[in-house]
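Input chain follows. Return structure tokens only.
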Amino acid sequence: MDRALHLSSQGLIDREIAAMCGVSIGAIQKWRTGGRRAHEEQDRLRSCPRCHGRELDDAAYAHLLGLYLGDGHIVARPKGVYLLSIYCDNHWPGLIEEAATVMARVMPASMVSRRQRNGCTEVKSLWKHWPHLFPQHGPGKKHDRAIVLEPWQREIVTAHPEWFVRGLIHSDGCRGINRVRRVLPSGVHWYEYPRYMFKNESADILALCGEALDLLGVAWRFNNRNELSVARREAVELLDLHVGPKY
């Protein structure tokens, strides 16, 4: 079929191609029309939403943006191709599958693969337009450079803050149980309550997380310079609707 399509692209008529390939004229016609549609669909799916206007799955992109800012990076490969990698802890197989799913939804024609690393799984995809979707890409570590969203990214995050926060917390955060010791006249008492934590060395990324939590109406505060916390009962319950524990 590939040879027939190549000959057709060179201008040969179906009868000539059929004779050269040893198949019927009908088969050539089927390959030519069906193959062209398939190639056109692949070209459409490979196109860049930023460069060519292909429709972008905004919710999946907001999720992938959060994962990228938390535990992802982009590196250049030969022939103008870029590798997007998200690193997921092997303790959470559900998160590995979720990262692969949203990566495929953002770039449907690019194969998403996995590679085992020391204690984690690298979920990755090759595509020449990844830097166009993640303009925060640059040399060095994220906390050593400014991380500022483009206006079109802000529109997406504003429309889907729950997916953005999910990506951030499932990459660089957690939902855990906090234990507090209190000395009372009746003795020592321990209190436990669930809370969410998000830790990142980039002040810009922490600020973006806080802004998205504000959009969701989730109360939060800084625990340290590089860590924010969601601990109020109603705030945790609200965030449980969008994020939940790692799995």
